[in-house]
Amino acid sequence: MKVKGTKQMVTMPASIYRLAYDRRFPTCPQMPIVLDCEIIEDSVYDNGARRDTKRRCKIAVEAPYLIKKIIGVDVVFFIQKNFLDMKTRTLNIEATNESFATRVEIFEKCRYYAHPENPDWTCFDQTATLDIKNFFGIEHSMEKMGMKQYTQTTLKGKEIIEFFVNELKQEGVTHVDKWADDATVTSTATGSTSATPPEKPPLCRDNSILDADYIAKYLGQLTPLQESKLVQLRKRFEHGSSEHPEPDYQTLLRFLRARDFSIDKATAMLQESLQWRKEHRIDDILSEYKTPAVVEKYFPGGWHHHDKDGRPVYILRLGTMDVKGLLKSVGEDELLKLTLHICEEGLKLMKEATKLFGKPVWNWCLLVDLDGLSMRHLWRPGVKALLRIIETVETNYPETMGRVLIVRAPRVFPVLWTIVSTFIDENTRSKFLFFGGPDCMHAEDGIEQYIDTDKIPSFLGGSCNLSIPTVVETIPAKLYTRCFLSACHCTLIHEGGLVPKHLYKSESIEENNGTIHAHDHHGLYKAVDLKPGQLFELLIRNTDPKSVLTWDFEVLKNDTLFAVYHTEKVIEQSGNDNFSSVFDGADFKDGANYKKIEQSVKCRPKEGVQGSHEMASTGTYVLQWMCAPSCDGPAQLMYFHEILSSANYKGSMTSLQSGFSSNSLQSR
């Protein structure tokens, strides 16, 4: 039988681990089964560079009384051999059993060695074999005991070494020089030092070593494995050019995080993004981009100070934005370019925040005010443009969004969120916090938990005035960012408003051309065909009170009736005849143990319907569609639904109550 311990890595030089390992002998309180260790051979070679040590260790038998009585001993002896090589900075350890050697063969091997890419890291691996030949007829029991003992020893070994490493630190021993004929141990407590090596630069290109101080200041806390993968990814992009410069470590780390530290996946994602940046001249966008006049006057967004974690804050008053007017005035491509300019500003501001606060700031905070959001924001060409923007940003600016504060969310918000959220990366979605009530500042866990009160805009109850002067058209857009950078003025953010139609450049963006069909949702929508009088019921079991049920469907053919029901009973989806409802059973009575919570609505072909309902109770919620019996043919529809967890919402949920709109394809 062969077992193998997991390979581990720690951010501590191997030489320190060697000193810590020596302190285990002859005994240590953390390993009470080791009763004694006697050195029986100790040889030094190559002027002290190599040392071989052989010990005989006395081990207490940890076994049930009956087994100890059968084998007739309370202790066993093991032979341990250590092979230390100071030149290569490795320590190999082998252990074999001396007792019962003719009946059982135990061989364990472990190794401490310096990481090949960073000598300040120590790697450790361990393997063992157990061969039970003949052991008093209890071979199976001994095998199980051996497995258990090996697992416990593996887990305990690293813990013991780290105990002695900390003990060395307390004594002032923090560094051991690389081996030399007169190698000495440096102690910060006693002040004894060897020749001080030259200070390492933050990035050593020759061997791709990352300085620990650089990591702490610019990258943040990383596990040794994550650091190793970051170095490996850097090697794949280290030959940059003036046309295609190599990415910095912050960028490499963002793409690694976006792909769960898979080097191959991060490489593919970053290569595609670098090519995209080259094709669209993204590296020049900060110097070349000219903000259109209509955007300067009617786009309600801008950078605004930092949150409590040091992140740059971008405020977007989406509820007052005339999506249709901006889209028809500047076009979808120009709105995308505006977004990319904002993202590039964000990258620059994150670096400046890192220097300002002396700690890594590698993402920003987005505060979205939805006061004024209505069904006109669900204009399909506008939603389609938004989805394109989200996809582009998710692909090329991963892990830049640290927190998203959604404030003053009205009742139609879950409809928009249902459509948009499916295109947002799951990790990014987890960073959204929703505040449904009008008082998002003082509510429990309100936004003042994340942004200082004097930085919260006055329209949200803070003391910072963001009202833009009437002469806004005379203020360049770049002044907004300069106000942010100065950190002594509030950013000037326009309140939005309707874009005058005489500024429209195109009337070609029509609702029917901008319709989002099922294929735009990458298979998220499902199709249903219903014969006249036939029902389709979607049963949704709810165990999360105050969560929000949202739906979006489009009728493609013939009239369809839609309603929503609730019962406290738990109902399983069944294959009924589709011409009767689950509530047609004898055990259901309308108004007694189930009720209709959204009144029936007739939906005509080419109408899109979105809605939401706060699921205040547990039980089963039923979305029901029926082809009108009077139809001369079958009905067709595409539907999608989602449940929004109550944990993501802060403040009042009443503002999110059932926002139902038929014919929402049309611009309002």
UniProtKB/TrEMBL annotation:
This is Protein real-time. Residues 291-468 form the CRAL-TRIO domain. It is found in: Mitochondrion. It comes from the Eukaryota. InterPro entries: CRAL-TRIO_dom, CRAL-TRIO_dom_sf, CRAL/TRIO_N_dom, CRAL/TRIO_N_dom_sf, GOLD_dom_sf, PRELI/MSF1_dom, SEC14/CRAL-TRIO_domain. Residues 1-173 form the PRELI/MSF1 domain. It comes from Anopheles christyi. Pfam families: CRAL_TRIO, CRAL_TRIO_N, PRELI.
